[in-house]
Amino acid sequence: MTGLPAVVLGAGKSGAQLARALHAHPRVDLQAVVGGSSGSASELGRHLGVAAFNEPDDGWHVPSGGIVAVASPHERHVSQVLTGLAAGADVLVDKPVAIDGHGFERIAAAAAASGRGVSCGMVQRCSPDMVRCRDYLRERGEKIHAVAVSQFLRRESAYYAGWKGDPRAAGGGVLLNQAIHALDLALYLTGAVPLVARATLRSSRSIRVEDHVHAAVETDQGVLSLTATTCAAAEESQVIRVFLPTETVVIVGSETPRWRRVTSSVEEAIAELAARPVPFGPGHATWVDDAVRAWLSRTPALYECELELVRASHEVVYALYESAAQDGAAVSVASRRPSRRPVPGGAS
Q: What 3-state DSSP class applies to 209?
């Protein structure tokens, strides 16, 4: 049986994970990897035995009726996703779908018009354990009164030397590039509806994007607080605490998160869960498998990474940037207009 033709746009860390996952899938025929000028696509193509191109090169095309996987700098996501949809392909896109609400709405409209699928790489959702945690928490949604999210990641200043430190190419720093994962997971697990967002963004280094965010999001369940930081001296950690009347549910880790119900010794439980590291990447393969299965069968995906099911986390992020631009003013998430997010600029 001939597999679905696929092409990967981007050959960095996430692009390599997507390419490997698609290459290993029995129902997919990975035809090409397209990268920038660094030569990473050539190396990846040789490793996988597929064609490799730089973006300006001729010789590659978007496969009609196949799959386009987008893992390029954030500013390119909208145009590349739209190109894939226009060609009649389903699209896998690394987070964020778009750096602003206007771009998100363009993609949503194009996907609806084309009848093709768009799936976003919110890979922290993508494990059976997180489905079990989701089911447990959503059954108790009315009892949730607060959620606290903390994320601390080691990132040297050199990490921001390329496009990830360019506010126009990246769209933002720690909030849009890293914390969106943890925020999305918290919303996915609890089923909370975000209502009002407030944020403060700061850069503690000589970089042009924020490396610290402190935010509060009012939801129909209570308050979701978020603190996220990248710095050269951080010890990597991500913890989500969901507070219920008689217990706290803790979700620990950023690659394949684990969860536990705790009634006492919360910090001990967090330390125990964090002591079992998981290598980078298994979520990408699970996400790809789930999306391809859903597209082939035209049934809903298990991990709910379809475009409209990641809208809430993107809208919250856009609202948080808008709030930060207004010195932490409250911004209504539900009434946001797609064009209201300001042009990305340096962190204050």
A: coil
Q: Residue 80 burial by CB count (10 A; 0-12/13-18/19+): exposed, middle or buried?
A: buried
Q: 55 pLDDT exceeds 80? A: no
Compute the mean pLDDT over every residue in the chain, rounded to the nearest whole number: 92
Distance CA 242, CA 143 (A): 10
For residues 249 and 55, give the distance between their C-alpha atoms in angstroms, rounded to a whole number.
45
Share of the chain above pLDDT 70, in %: 93
Q: pLDDT category, 37, cuts 50, 70, 90?
A: low
Q: Is 265 left (phi over 0), alpha (psi -120 to 50) or beta?
A: left
CA-to-CA distance for 59 and 40, rounded, in angstroms? 18
CB contact at 8 A, 238 and 174: no
Question: Residue 277 has what pLDDT?
Answer: 67
Nearest to 139 by CA among 131, 147, 128: 131
Q: Which of 232, 230, 175, 203 is nearest to 346 (CA)?
A: 203
C-alpha 294/C-alpha 318 separation (Å) is 28
Query: How many other C-beta atoms are found inside a 10 Å radius of the C-beta of residue 183?
Result: 28
Position 346 scores a pLDDT of 46
Radius of gyration of the chain (CA): 20
Per-residue pLDDT, averaged over 98-127, amounts to 96
As given in the structure block, the two tokens for residue 44 are 């990846």
Helix (H, G, I), strand (E, B) or coil at 184: helix
Beta partners for residue 98, in sequence order = none
**The residue to which tokens 């049986």 are assigned:** 1
CA distance linking residue 63 with residue 329, whole number of Å: 45
Paired strand residues for 153: 230
